[in-house]
Structure formats: C-alpha cells, structure tokens
Amino acid sequence: MNQDKRAEGEQEFQLLGIILQFPELINEAADDLQVKHLSHPHAQLIYEELLKQFQQDGNISRTKLLLKLREEELVKDPDGLVDQLTSGFNTREELKPTIDLIKQEHQKKLLREAAARLKDLAAKSDMTIEEYQAQAQELIFSATSETGDLEKHIFSMEEALIASYDRYLKRRNNEADIGVQSGFMSLDKLLGGFKKGHLTVIAASTSMGKTAFAINIARNVLKRDISVGIISLEMDATEIVDRMVIQEADINAWKYSQGHTSESEDEKISRILNDMHEYPLMISDERGLNVAQIQARLRKFKAQLEEIGLVIIDYLQMIQIPEDYSQNTARAVGEVVLHLRNMASELDVPVLLISQISRKYTSRQDKRPVLSDLRDSGNIEEIADSVIFLYREAHTSPAAREKAQMEGTEGETEVIVAKQRTGQTGATKLEFDEDHICFIDPENLSYEEAMPYEG
Question: Against a cut of 0.85, is the pTM above it?
Fold first, then answer.
C-alpha cells in the first residue's frame, strides 16, 4: 500500500487494527462511529464490511474479511493490508480516544467543505445578504452539529430512574422548569406551561382571534421579563406592538388607531410605552421567509437576547415551501412543521406555531375543530407536541352571532387542548374583548379581585 495514502488515514487504520485484535469491541464502535466518519476509501471499505458481518452474524471474522477482499479484488494486496492492521500493538483502552480523533477530523473536514461552499455562495451575484446569511448559518450549523453526542440520548434503566427522580424532587421543591406560563390561569392549569423544545400549534378558522391570542400570551410572558421572539409573516412589527399597547393600556382599539384618544388616555399610553421600552422582545416582520431563514432569524434573536424564553411564528401557511414540493402542498407543509419542531429542540425553546384549519368543519353540525381538521395541511397533528384550538360559536354563522348577541356571549371562546404529548387534554373558556383585541380569563379576574387592596 502507498505509504502516503496510508498516512492520510492513520487513525482510521489504527481503529480497524484495534477492532480486528479485539472483535468484541465492534459493538462499541458500531454505536459511536459511522462509515461516513472515515475518509480513507480503503478504511471505509473495510469498516463497512466489518459492520455487515456484525449485523448478519453478531460478530466479526478476520478470515471472512480477508476472503471478501480477495474475492472482489477490492484492494491490491489484501493479505499484506490485513497483516499490517493486525501486526501493531494496540490495547482496548485506545478504542475510544481513536474514535474521538476520527470524529474530530471528520468535523474539521465538514467545516472545510462548509467554508468552500460559503465561498461559492458569496460569488453568486443573484443572492441577497439575507439569503446568504440564512444559508451560511445553516451550513455552519450542519457542519458543527452533525456529529452530535449520542451518549446524551442513551440511558440505562438505572440512569433513567435517577434522572426521573431528580426531576421529581425539583418539582416538589419548586426548583424545576415547569414551562413558560401563558398568563391565563385556567389554561395554565390544563397545560402546565409551554415546554422547552416543544412545538405547540395554535389553530383555528379565520377571525377566531389566533394572532390576538398569541400576542396576548407574548405580552403576559414579557411582563414577567421572559424574552420573546416573534416571526410575523403577516403583520408589521408596529401592528404587533400596537396590539400590546392597546391591551396594556386598556384603550379602545378603534380610538387608538384613529388617534381619537383623550388627554388622560394619552398620558396612560405614554406611561405604558415607557414601561414597555425594556421588554426583551425581538420581531421579524418580513414576509415570504422559508424555514432556513426563520431559523437564521431566531439564532440572531438568541444571540442578541442571550436567551429566548418563547418563540411565536405567525403563521404556518405563510411560510415559503420548498420548490421540490410545489406539487404536493400537504407534504411540503408537513416537512415545514417537522423542521420547526426540530428547530424548537435545537434552540431548546417552546415554539408556538399559528395555523389555519381546513374548511371541512363548516359541513358539520358541531363545528368545534378536531385534529382531523389539520390533515389537509400535512401531518401536523402527528408531528406537533401539542395542539390548541380556538373556537367561538358566535363566529360560525350569522344566526349564531345573532343568538350570542342576544345572550351576551359573543366573546365566549373555547380553548381546546386537543393534543398534549406530556400532559392532559381538555378545554377551558376565555372571553374575547373585541374593543381591546385581547382575551380575558375569568379565573384571573377572580384571583385579582380576591387579592387585598394596597392603598
């Protein structure tokens, strides 16, 4: 074998020598190292053959390897190569550090390839800076995360029990992160908070108040000094902040939008703006973003805020889908949702994704949304960790609106937790205040009224 070529894959051939001398170690190597982590073609070929043997027979054989190399003439001197691999002095203890070195070299290779790809991208004249930044961040992230630590995701029963009991004790002692509370007491009792790394879909038909509900949650969270990142694909940043000002100042939305507020209301708005100035909020209001661009924006948010407590994306159907899926929208939407869920896990942050539902519900007598109403938009209900529906009976038909007006229940909104991977399902009721574009939880009001007045 050419010595220069041999030197290129020195650590890789050392690995093969260790495995051939201690065949029982193939189990440990197979769990931690893939063929793609090796760079030398001969090393890749031999390691792949050893893995095949292990998968078929549960063990490996030096003789079988030699016969395979001879029969298929995969290398020039199979006998000499195998002799070289098994002639060196190796110990069992060298396996793990050798694997680590190989994976480090693989990581460096990926980074070199990413750098070359970035150079090619920079030469493209038709790319905007935003597009370049999004692709650049995606390339660097892929290069630095591809060889993730598998050990973090493998537990023995004893390890899992210890971790579970530790979390239990933290919950008992009020030390655990129980999730980001929505600020609506009745809903928080049901949800237990929005969990880190989880994707929650908030879905409803048109005009049910999905965006208002999400902005309301954002405002509640920001008031507790928890940072929020909003990706708005429909509303401008100023419109979002206007909604928060209206909610916080308790000002009539129409009067605020028309500039018909009174002097006392103007003073109130001024105080509110001053208070809101310190809110840890970042907003992107560019339309037509794809998933890679959304990820890039959120990484930028995280860098500027140091930490993101909650992410809101408004809304799913406005996200640009990959051209490869242009003929199959449902599949494309499913891929988008899957990427967003993985992003939630990567950033370790709860993500609220607003979504429309199909209009199939209009043909039902009971028009309350159900999980199957999401199916026309891909397999959202399967991928999402939680699904929350908003339902306002008054908005289902003119007759329903007239009846609600007569009964004084026009703003009554059912918040239906239809799926929750780590908790219970059920429903609660909020009241939508159309004048102030906000939701009110009667349980919050009862609690506030019960609090002693501090004059």
Answer: no
Residue corresponding to tokens 């190292």: 33
The residues with which 291 forms a beta bridge, in sequence order, are: none
Q: What is the DSSP string of 315-339?
A: -GGGSPPPGGGTT-HHHHHHHHHHH
C-alpha angle 94-99-105 in degrees, rounded to nearest 5: 130
Per-residue model confidence as pLDDT tens for the chain (455 residues): 444 444 456 888 888 888 888 888 887 787 678 888 888 888 888 888 888 887 677 778 888 888 888 887 777 887 888 888 877 777 888 888 888 888 888 888 888 888 888 887 777 767 677 667 777 776 776 666 554 444 455 667 777 777 777 777 776 776 656 789 999 999 998 888 899 999 999 998 888 889 999 999 999 999 999 999 999 998 889 899 999 888 888 888 898 888 888 888 888 888 888 888 889 999 998 888 888 788 878 888 887 888 899 999 988 888 887 666 556 777 778 888 888 998 898 888 999 999 988 777 667 777 788 888 886 555 888 889 999 999 988 888 888 888 888 888 888 899 999 999 877 889 999 999 888 888 999 887 766 555 555 44
The tokens describing 339, both together, are 């990427």
Q: Measured between alpha carbons, how far is residue 366 from residues 60, 143, 362 in Å? A: 62, 50, 9
Question: Taking CA 444 as the corner, what is the angle to CA 440 and CA 445, rounded to the nearest 5 degrees?
Answer: 80
The helix/strand/coil state of 313 is strand
Cα 351 to Cα 382: distance, rounded to the nearest angstrom: 16
Give the domains, in start order, of the chain with CATH numbers: 1-154 (1.10.860.10), 177-450 (3.40.50.300)
Going from the C-alpha of 9 to that of each of 89, 93, 100, the distances in angstroms are: 17, 20, 14
Tokens of 47: 């390691």
Angle, in degrees to the nearest 10, between helices 129-145 and 291-305 = 80
3-class state of residue 378 by DSSP: strand
